[in-house]
Amino acid sequence: VSTELDAAQVIALLGFGPGSREATYVEELADEPPAGLVPLSSRQAAELLDQLKVSPAEAADVVSTLPDPERTPAWWWCCERAAGRLLRAMGDPDARRGTWPSFEGPDHDLARRCHFVHVALLVAPATVSYFEGLGVPPGLSWSALDDVARHMAIHRRVFGLTGMDAAWWVTLCLRGEMVDLGRLQYNRFNLEVSEESPVWYLPEEQEKRGEGFRKGDPSVGVHIPESGPLLPALVSESLEMAGEFFARYFPVSQRRVATCMSWLLDPQLAEYLPEGSNIVSFQRRFELVPGGYLGDEDVLQFVFRSPAGVDLETLSQKTTLERAVVTHLRAGRHWQVPTGWLDLPAA
Ligand SMILES: CC(C)(COP(=O)(O)OP(=O)(O)OC[C@H]1O[C@@H](n2cnc3c(N)ncnc32)[C@H](O)[C@@H]1OP(=O)(O)O)[C@@H](O)C(=O)NCCC(=O)NCCS
Known about the structure:
This protein has a 6-stranded mixed β-sheet with strand order 1-2-3-4-6-5. By secondary structure, it is α+β, with helices and mostly antiparallel strands. 45% of the residues lie in helices and 11% in strands. The protein starts with 6 loop residues before the first helix and ends with a strand. A hairpin with a 2-residue loop joins β1 and β2. Coenzyme A binds next to α12, α13 and α14.
């Protein structure tokens, strides 16, 4: 049934506004061949959700809204094609990401909020097989998907509802580009080619710095998931693990620097945070690339889980960082998101 639908019918059935991001998502998916996937039974879905460490209450919501070609053909149509798009991009950091709309918050019903989790369930076994095919141990292969539960937990914390925060980000994990190694996460990409490439050196500087810095050179992105303090010992341990992991499973024959593009690297933070703070110690590990982009939105997002334009007076002022963010913005100053880089420890 589902394969007979066209984009316009799916858009109408799901109530997406014409010209909306959601409608663009459907139109892009219409260009994807159906992936020939079989819907998951409730039991299969529940088992997978358990392996993905999703909480039982959230898992029940996800299972209760599983798409079905007969009952919910438009959702199944989206799910199958979105999963197919991810499966075709497996392990390829240069594949275009495409549009992934946001179904976050109370404006969306439960089926919508669970859509990306349904997609994740169709893809997750293939992600694990991809890593295992490279010889990565099962424990590490599964933990590469920890962002599914982590981003569901963030959605619950922000909205008190089952759903997935920043689904577009989780697609990188599902495509087998991201791994969790101890405290940090890492993704493979090619400088200035992959969509995940950060703000980088100008061409003359790339040439001057040579191998490892030039357009197209393989690189590793460093990411900091929300999971407890950024203790320096844990960061060192994770960087060691990454040095070994990438040398072993994704070897390259040239220098490969690790980059980090984050509000956490804004040097202005050191004006407010004590010398011994974890963030300041993390910053010291990286050499900064000139430039970056405006970081107010990222800081509000990661410190307060609040959108840009929020009334600063309403924000909590409990921690040193929260007070710093508000003081800085009230003074009419702005935060930056720079790129930093470092060499991973040799394996
Ligand atoms: C990265 C992170 C773990 C650092 O936390 P940390 O290890 O506590 O960092 P520090 O030791 O440098 O903290 C210094 C101060 O800032 C506070 N702080 C740090 N991160 C904070 C955050 N996200 N929200 C509120 N306060 C925070 C700490 O509580 C501490 O204040 P206090 O001494 O008054 O208690 C934390 O910011 C975090 O979880 N961020 C979300 C994920 C993220 O931003 N990833 C990067 C995406 S690009």
